[in-house]
Amino acid sequence: MNELPPITSVLAFIEVATRGAFNEAARALELSPSATSKAVTRLEDHLGVKLLRRTTRSVSLTPEGVRYLEGARQIVQDLRELDAELSASTSEPRGKLSVNAPAALARMWLVDTLPTFHSRYPRVNVELILDDRTVDLAGEGVDVVIRSGELADSVSLVAKKLYDETLYTCAAPDYWARHGRPAHPEDLKHHNCLNFRVAQTGRQFPWAFTVDGMVAQIDVEGSLTVNEGESVARAAMAGLGVAQLPGYMARAALQDGRLEEALEEFRPPSTPITALYLDRRLVSPKVRAFIDFLAETASELG
């Protein structure tokens, strides 16, 4: 195995090549000009090539020096990032953590988990931003985004699926008692169906079912369309009609009897709930702790 050059010689070469002068490089390195020159000479002797052209007035790179500078800078940067990552991995998560999430998902699931997160990481201050819009994490200073459904590809983000959420077709017991239960999704055309309109697109969110092994969308109509999901859930609990709701909206009401599911055998495919954060070599301890905590908390859902 070939012997590696001393890191001090590599650093000296980078400084001289960057600054174009031994005196300036020496000051930056807190060395004498002669020590800096000797360090670069040792590197050239080790490689067996000239990296710098030296005159009494200037210093310039040889073609070999240009190539070595490019590689050496990347290696030193990698070492610095590795050093920072290992140091950060042992530090306590702290500071402000900005989280963007859909309002209903945050209120009905995420907020309830925060006391436990705070007890584990008391030095992390969470700022919740509740909306469904597309977020520029880097530009807006957002650390984590939580989204429901399929996501557009992005090379700049890491996506961590937290869990698969079930969609329930349900209504209040009183509604079923008055109108009967549907035996097939097509029967919903004879029911008062409560709809959700997506604010970003202005379109009504489609109802989906699994019929004969295939996903089918059913057009339904009713006396209420709302652009906010919680209101649809509350109207269903009040007995106004039938709703198709994600588990975080319906689960508690299904458990305590305020809602009852129908068409269970026709449930649509589950919907992924995903956390996204910037694709960086160094992920801060607070982001890593929050993502791991969410995955742990969500493991019992879906």
> Which structural class should the secondary elements be placed in?
alpha/beta
Biggest sheet, spatial arrangement of strands: 4-3-5-14-6
Proportion of beta-strand residues: 15-25%
CATH architecture classification name of the largest domain? 3-Layer(aba) Sandwich
Please report the distance between the alpha carbons of the first and last residues: 53 Å
Rg over CA atoms: 30 Å
List the helices and strands in order.
HHHEEHEHEHEEEHEEEEHEHEEH
The number of helical segments is: 10
What sort of overall outline do the alpha carbons produce when their principal axes are compared? elongated
The biggest sheet, with number of strands, parallel, antiparallel or mixed sense and barrel status, is: 5 strands, mixed
Q: Fraction of residues in helices?
A: 40-55%
- Extended strand count: 14
The top-level CATH class of the largest domain is: Alpha Beta
Your description of this structure?
The chain has three domains: 7-89, Winged helix-like DNA-binding domain superfamily/Winged helix DNA-binding domain (Arc Repressor Mutant, subunit A), CATH 1.10.10; 95-163 and 271-298, D-Maltodextrin-Binding Protein, domain 2; 167-266, 3-Layer(aba) Sandwich (D-Maltodextrin-Binding Protein, domain 2), CATH 3.40.190.290. 41% of the residues lie in helices and 23% in strands. The protein contains ten helices and 14 strands. The chain has helices at residues 7-19, 22-29, 33-47, 63-89, 103-120, 137-140, 173-179, 229-237, 247-256, 285-298; strands at 52-54, 59-61, 95-101, 124-130, 144-148, 157-165, 167-171, 195-196, 207-211, 214-218, 225-226, 243-246, 260-262, 271-278. The chain has a five-stranded mixed β-sheet, covered by helices on one side. A three-stranded antiparallel β-sheet has the order 12-7-13. A two-stranded antiparallel sheet has the order 1-2. Strand 3 (95-101), helix 5 (103-120) and strand 4 form a beta-alpha-beta unit. The two termini are 53 Å apart. The model has no long low-confidence stretch (mean pLDDT 88).
